[in-house]
Amino acid sequence: MRIAAITPVWNEPELIKGCIRSLAPHVEKHIVLVSETPYYGDGIMDNTAEVAEELGAEVITGNWKLDHHQRNLGINLLQDFDWIITADADEMITSYNMQILKRNMERTKHDALSVNHYPYWKDYYHVIKDNFKPIFAVRPNVKFNHIRNVNCIFGQSDACIDHLSWCKPKDILKKITNYAHADEYNPEIWYNTHYKNWKEGELAVFPGDSFRVKEHRLPNELRKLLA
User: What is the number of domains present in the chain?
Assistant: First the structure.
């Protein structure tokens, strides 16, 4: 079974290290699609492309309206592979969970698989208890039709990824100003009211929803990959 990976990214030089390194032992090729400009607002391209290249990824730069356009371009370039991991720059997977995912890919009749995830909140010791299960692996015939939605019925893997979606080193204010779903936020108000001043025991509040926060530690295996 031949496995490759694609990652859409804009200005994540620290997080891209962990993503690429966690997948490197398991994929033959990793394409990182680096946006020259953010999806929303303004911003200057940083050194993410150079960091990804130094770690052995193939880098493509360009301008895309949203990340599903990047994913589809990456899929089109990887038609010789059996499966394609579609990891965001802030997502990592342990060796144990990657073995689970590989078994699921070998056995499933579906063309795409979602995974469980730990979405970290504020630091490496807290996660949000949400029900989101991101699409993480697809066959090369699959297309993304909006952000992380696919054009096929998908299965559920038993694997779990670690998703540094709401914690450092990600710049959270930049995230809600420039990334996908930025149009749902009033960035300054949300950041100062619900994120910056969050205290232990409070809910994580988002536009239209809120979630409990529980203690969960980022595995040491993955913390080392961010160094």
Answer: 1
